[in-house]
Amino acid sequence: MDDQPESPFENIESALQFVELLCDAIEESRREIEQASAETQSDRRQQALQLVSYNLAKLALHMGTSRRILNDLRTLRRLFLQERGTREEEEQGEAAEGAAAAGELADAADGAGFID
């Protein structure tokens, strides 16, 4: 079976990659606008570039929020899938850990001279 997504947003990871690329493009655009703003002498053009810079800053803020949300969703999905896949293993592991802890406690008590 082919694990490649059919569309660019078929899974959270691909959407997260897109958002990260978009954030990079926004940051690059902001640097270009700042440079153009420093070079311009026209007041009208300066105001237009300030408006563009402001809107790019808002967009960067929204994309940063989207990136955090996607990252949270990815983390929650991983936790959920791991929980579903290993619930029985965890129950078996807890029983084994309890027995091992009891054995370690008995060894420590014996080493401290509590058990003859």
Protein architecture, described:
With 116 residues, the chain is mainly alpha-helical. It has helices at 12-39, 43-111. Helix 1 crosses helix 2. The protein is rod-shaped. It starts with 11 loop residues before the first helix and ends in a 5-residue tail after the last helix. The relative contact order is 0.08. The mean pLDDT is 81.
Task: Give short descriptive properties of this protein.
116 residues; mainly alpha
Quick overview of this protein structure:
This protein has helices at residues 12-39, 43-111.
Number of helices: 2
- The first-to-last residue Cα distance is 61 Å
Helix and strand run: HH
Q: Which regions contain 5 or more consecutive residues with pLDDT less than 50?
A: none
Coarse shape = rod-shaped
* Strand tally: 0
| Average pLDDT metric | 81
Radius of gyration: 28 Å
- What structural class is derived from the secondary structure elements? mainly alpha
How would you summarize the topology of this molecule?
Layout: H1 12-39, H2 43-111
Helix pairs in contact: 1-2
